[in-house]
Amino acid sequence: MAALTTVIGRRSGGRRSANRRETRAAYGFIGLWMVGFLVFTLGPMIASLVLSFTDYNAISSPHNVGTANYRQLMSDPKVSKALSNTLIYAVMYVPVAMAVALCLALLLNRVGRASGFFRTIFYLPVMTPPVAAGALFLLLLNGNQGLLNSTLHLVGINGPNWTTDTAWVKPGLAITMLWGVGGMVVIYLAALRQVPKELYEAASLDGAGAWMRFRRVTLPMISGALFFTLIVQTISALQMFDQAYTMFFGGQQNSTYSNDAALFYVIYLFQQGFSFLHMGYASALAWLLFVVIMIITAIQVRVSRRFVYYEGERD
User: How many beta carbons lie within 10 A of that of residue 243, not counting itself?
Assistant: First the structure.
């Protein structure tokens, strides 16, 4: 009996030792992320929150102004203009981008062995620097000599002035951003391949057509991936900067009206912080955007509970 107790004690001690080693290894890996998070994310966030209550021009020392920056942004017409531009663009871009990516993923799901090649082709534009893509699409969307309008002219359509007509600036930007839907295509393709084929077979036996199978089987089974990309793409759209700045604020001579139509929130924040050196005001603008994103994300999460299905859930 004593020998059995000794063996059990040794095994228990070995497990505890192994658990401690695994715990130390886990903390080692997590610690690297925690250091990066504290230094490059949480620290700057706290600093910007403090600066949002100051008047700071990055040259002289900041001095406290209380809530003056927040009162100013509430009455600044440029803030409402930039925020409305950003929200309109997000509403235009996100649903269309998700639909295009899903259509491409459905096509790739039918290709078979060649899907790896096409998946790479679709993903390559994601690797293109946004500034380079913005310069490229500035040429393609030129109202007089652009390739897009030249192509439309071949079929008898007079294309609009994408970069100068205020009504077409945001749709034009939404079109250019479809260049980078390859990341969503990969996510959707992975989700589609996880849908059990038995569900399609059962639906076919019940007389469901292609549309009904897509609506009742495919969409619910990939709803988690759709919800994830909805959140990510919405946040990305609300932070639109690179291509819009390259196309409309990078030195080219567009009209003031088109610049106002392309004045997205982060561009205005950048102008206040780095062009006019109003760092305190820019920090207040950043926190307003943070609150807006949090509210929109919370609404999306709340609404998603009725539509998102996760395999393995129990009612």
Answer: 24
The pLDDT score that the predictor gives to residue 24 is: 86
Radius of gyration of the chain (CA): 26
Domain parsing of the chain, residue ranges = 77-304
pTM, full prediction: 0.85
Q: Which CATH superfamily is domain 77-304 in?
A: MetI-like (1.10.3720.10)
Give the C-alpha separation, 302 to 289, whole Å.
20
**DSSP β-ladder status, 54-55 and 63-64:** antiparallel
> For 6-38, how does the pLDDT look when each residue is reduced to its tens digit (9 = 90+)?
544 555 555 677 788 888 888 888 888 899 989
Residue 273 CB coordination number (10 Å): 21
